[in-house]
Amino acid sequence: MSEHVKQNKLFDPEVTDQARMYHAIAEMGEVGVLVLNDENRVEFANRMVSTITGFKTEELTGQNFTDFLDKKNRSIFQSLKSQSIGGITTFDKRTEKKISREIKINTAFSATVITEICLSIYSMLKSGKRKYIVYIRDISVQKKLTEELRESEKKHRNLFERIDQGICVTTKEGRFLDSNPALLKMLGYESKEEFLKIDINKDLYVNPEDRRVFQELIERDGFVKNYEVVYKKKNGGEIPVLMTSHVRKNEGGEVIGYQGLVMDISERIRMEQELREKHGFLSNLLESSPDCIVVADMQGNIIFFNRAAEKLTGYREKEVVGNFHITKLYPLEIARDILRKLRSEDFGGYGKAEKLMHTIYGKNSEEIPVSLSASIVYEGEKELATLGVFTDLREKIKTERELKEAQVRLLQSEKMASLGSLAAGVAHEINNPLGGIIIFASLLMEDFEADNDPRLEDLKKIVQEATRCKEIVKNLLEFGRQTESRFEPVDINKAVIDVLFFLENQVLFHDIRIIKHLDFSLPLCQGDPNQIKQIFMNMMVNAAEAMSENGGDLTITTGIIPDASSFFVSFQDTGTGIAPEIQSKIFDPFFTTKEVGKGTGLGLSTSYGIIQSHHGNIVVDSAVGKGTTFTITLPASHQESHETGA
Ligand code: ADP
Ligand code: MG
Q1: CATH number at residue 513
Q2: Ligand that lies nearest to the alpha carbon of residue 555, given by its number in the listed order
Q3: What distance in angstroms lies between residue 610's CA and the mean position of ligand 2's atoms?
Q4: Which of 58, 139, 389, 582 has the smallest count of CB within 10 Å of its CB?
Q5: Which candidate, 585, 589, 577, 575, places its Cα nearest to that of 621?
Q6: Helix, strand or coil, per DSSP, at residue 27
Q7: Residues sharing a CB contact under 8 Å with residue 399, sequence separation 6 or more, in sequence order
Q8: Tens digit of pLDDT for each residue in 566-625?
Q9: Ligand 1: which of 541, 550, 592, 595 to mutate, most ligand atoms within 8 Å of CB?
Q10: From the CA of 441, how far away is ligand 2's center (Å)?
């Protein structure tokens, strides 16, 4: 090597100034410069070559350049040499490009560096010897970058081709510049060429207005995210998609088009639809249930409230759901109790409670009796909500009460009927002997009168008492309806006045003020005038008897009941009143609170019977110490009203 160093004339102090200048030029550039002799021996190497190869310039000088190349690169170098023409750097005549080769050079670090090499041949004027000027550029970094770029492009292309979402690049005007196979498949096109021809404005959107809105958005924001539209397939079919795009700009920053992702969401939409339908069906089912369904979360907040629940409580679903706690419907203790029962086995199984009777509160604090069946809704093991089904019991309770009342009335009628026939039988038997007693006692009385017999008074008593008995018997017969009734139009006001006329002067009525509120527009009643008078008499006598201690007012009122084609007569007194516990008994035959000999206990029961046979009704309203009102209603006969003028 030292031998070659000595041959390096360029470093000779004897070299000309010009040579030194060229030397300086060679050192200035970013390019490695070598001067080789015909045998490829290095005569000159600038510092850049040393930088590229890692060898010092003095190590390079005298070396055969091809020793730094492997076999393959050596032949590349040789071919480059053979293409080169003397004098100037070699250009390709056709392309007018500098002819260069990519050549790998072995470096001092037992590695290679990729370089771009071009040559110039120079013939020495004096000796005619040929020198080769070799320019070396390290392109390994650039090479690596291009390689990487290519690699990443390949990867992206791969992604672009293989991804199952549509990707496309479009112009602003409405043409596709590129699209991946997924998009073609999605829209049913066989070839890309065919697809790239379509007019986006006309052929892609089912509703072309969507394209306009899309452009407006993307031009405004630079991107559009998850824009839902419906695309047209090649065959005219429709497909819902989600578009996510951003703008493409040219170097001047002008928007020239868009690129982005197109996602087929038909499956998602189908599932959503199915879910909606399922949910819709279920909520419809719950909604239209005739029973009230209320669902609350485990904290007691109401989350579902169906139409029947609206109807039962008077609350609207809107005001309840999300606002009401279950305690708005029933007290906290009951809510806790229900939950306790739900979590126990004993009320219809775990998680269930059946037919609990409760009262819930509707709007306006109305109390509503209900039967409640509840259950816990689970998600796996977790308690999710409680569901309550309420059944309104008001109607049922009302019917039950009516039934009970009807039973009571039936019992009363039966009791009356059996007692009536019993009494009638007895009365009949007693009637004849009593008649005999009275007749014979009367005959005796005539004799005693003639004889002035002192026993006349006793005999008079016998006749008197026997006559009273006969009166009772008559009443009994009346009660047993053994007497015949004659139905004819009866003027009720007149009946009241007739009875009063007869009673007013009786001792019993002396301390009693009689007040009449008679409605003379009252229609006539179809009935037996004597029986009706008998009822009125019973009422007035009872009233007077109840006021016998201190006197009082007897108010008699008649009037029409609107819309019911019936009328009423009421007898109101200010007497003793009737204790609540005996109010149910006063219509029983022989029930009396009066001392023996005074009351028969037949007045009200007889009246009740008569009123029933007239298809009427009688009710009592009484307060102890205040007084009593009996109100009798009777159906009007279908004849014209009758003015009595009395
Ligand atoms: P009597 O008058 O013979 O006792 P009733 O059948 O007429 O029999 O009456 C039954 C009972 O009803 C009476 O004994 C009395 O206790 C009660 N009663 C009826 N009317 C009245 C009234 N207006 N005020 C208070 N109690 C009454
Ligand atoms: Mg009486």
Answers
A1: 3.30.565.10
A2: 1
A3: 15
A4: 582
A5: 577
A6: helix
A7: none
A8: 999 999 999 999 999 999 899 988 889 988 767 778 889 889 988 988 989 999 999 999
A9: 592
A10: 29
